[in-house]
Write a structure and sequence with these properties.
By secondary structure, the chain is of the alpha/beta class. It has six helices and nine strands, in the order αβββββαβααβαββα. It has two domains: about 80 residues, no CATH class; about 170 residues, 3-Layer(aba) Sandwich (Rossmann fold). It binds magnesium ion. Magnesium ion (MG) binds next to loops.
Length: about 260
Amino acid sequence: MNLDLLNKSCKNGRFITTKSYKKEIDLNLRVSEPESSTEYWRLPRPGELGELGPGQDFVHSGIVYHSNKDIKKPLVDFVANGSGEQRALLLDRDGILIKDTDYPGKVEDVFFLDDILPVLEMFQSAGYVIAVLTNQSGIGRGKYSESDYAETTDYIEEYYRSKGIEIKKTYYCPFHPEAKIDQYRKISGYRKPNPGMALLAAQDLSLDLSKSIMLGDKQSDRLNIGYLSAYIIGTRDPASDFKTFAEFKQFIQPKLEL
Ligand SMILES: [Mg+2]
């Protein structure tokens, strides 16, 4: 990992204790600065939520945050423990792998977007690990169940496997602050654009997120991880980077080490 890059992405490592922090503790380490309305990420300070000193790890909700060893430079960032050298193509699901039919949560709602296949083939041949990060507030909203979701995921992964594409793992976030079902109603650091799912993937799959790419169809797919490249594809978002997968492929192909 390139620490300079990490530090830059952490807005020069500014970190601060706020009273609201404890309210937002569920891995939601994004902090708003009321006067300037800028947002940034930080690690807990020593003494906050237990002791955290220079070079120490802070574990929360299964994610390991690691502070810079040199506390004199107030430069900290989060790195999933065990993150390695592997490059990944991280994909949003709805609008990227399947059509976004407004909460597709059951097998019968699934329509595959085959235009992405050449992109997946290209990244796979270049040695990228492919994983999916999907917000699934439809579960919290009671539109479909965890087991519907699991069945749909198997179906999607199996389809792409039949096309020669291996999706290593699909991560999902069922939580939403306004979920109908109590157990899913909360601010979650896993919900994109929060970084939780990507950090978890980095930990599980030994990824170097600074060399990885996230693809999505909405601005919320630009995760709050400054060192992870993200591209928005499609026509749904007027500010998308590319209108089609073919355009994206043409752009990215020369940049991949094939
Ligand atoms: Mg989407």
